[in-house]
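Design request, tokens follow.
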């Protein structure tokens, strides 16, 4: 059986969504609140960056794209979870499952490149301040975004081509909230250990490699600042703390999910909620609370709203 249309399995049953009514109501409430926070928080940052001229800089262009990606990541999975919790049958079509997997990996690839771009932006701003605007011009920023989407598509499709040609004739049950390549490969009616290793190694290597590259970049920035003036080190660390926090929040679940090929179902489910619902909320919160420019932009917006209300 060589392809999507030849597959006997037409739908996937998501067992993790089968639980008591009390637990369902709790999950519906939590997922709904988290998703609402993701949408409002990240779209608010996007709105600020677009309409506040003071934020028209490379850093905030990249931040706006990161916020948009966080909205896309949550929208790929969380609404489907809420819908399934409200329905009696917790199923997703095989085609829908494949599409969900591809979107998750495409968006994940884009977010990794954006985090690298933001690290490069800060490295340039701190280490080469006189050449910052020349290096971080609009073409470079747009190139980073395009590169992210290209990398995400290549990353997702390279795994998809391995999986789609496997024969799926049953079983069709996954103990999870969502579809992912390692879980689907285990349903194949063949010995797919080698395929599972390739797919896991692909995502795991990309996650680990990107994480260490980012840590190396931020370490280089801090070392450069320390060599120039040890008194400026704490100030630089405060400036970079939001970026470093977001990096750890994003990559910790990724490395557990893909470097650890078969995590226990309970850990896998919790990490998924963290990755797709909690982290997108924290990203917008961290950049809002830890960023002076964003705080000032919010104050300017508040003054404009107050002025228009009274006059």
């Amino acid at each position: 059986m060589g392809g999507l249309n030849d597959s006997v399995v037409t739908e996937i049953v998501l067992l993790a969504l089968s639980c008591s009514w009390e637990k369902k109501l709790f999950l519906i409430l939590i997922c709904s609140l988290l998703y609402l926070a993701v949408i409002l928080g990240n779209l608010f940052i996007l709105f600020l960056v677009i309409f506040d001229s003071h934020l028209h800089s490379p850093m905030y262009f990249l931040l706006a794209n990161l916020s948009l990606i966080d909205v896309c990541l949550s929208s790929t999975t969380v609404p489907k979870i809420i819908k399934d919790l409200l329905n009696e049958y917790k199923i997703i079509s095989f085609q829908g499952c494949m599409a969900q997997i591809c979107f998750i990996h495409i968006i994940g690839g884009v977010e990794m490149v954006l985090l690298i771009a933001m690290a490069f932006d800060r490295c340039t701003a701190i280490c080469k301040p006189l050449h910052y605007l020349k290096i971080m011009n609009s073409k470079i920023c747009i190139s980073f975004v395009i590169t992210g989407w290209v990398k995400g598509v290549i990353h997702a499709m390279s795994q998809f081509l391995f999986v789609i040609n496997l024969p799926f004739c049953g079983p069709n049950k996954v103990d999870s909230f969502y579809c992912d390549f390692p879980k689907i490969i285990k349903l194949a009616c063949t010995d797919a250990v080698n395929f599972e290793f390739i797919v896991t190694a692909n995502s795991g290597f990309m996650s680990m490699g990107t994480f260490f590259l980012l840590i190396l970049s931020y370490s280089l920035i801090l070392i450069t600042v320390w060599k120039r003036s040890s008194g400026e080190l704490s100030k630089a660390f405060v400036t970079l703390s939001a970026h470093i926090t977001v990096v750890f929040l994003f990559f910790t679940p990724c490395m557990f999910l893909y470097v650890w090929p078969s995590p226990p179902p309970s850990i896998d489910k919790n990490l998924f909620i963290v990755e797709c619902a909690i982290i997108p909320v924290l990203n917008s919160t961290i950049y809002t609370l830890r960023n002076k420019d964003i705080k000032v932009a919010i104050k300017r917006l508040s003054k404009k709203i107050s002025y228009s209300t009274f006059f």
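Comment from the thread starter after seeing the answer: thanks! Strands lie at 11-14, 91-93, 173-174.
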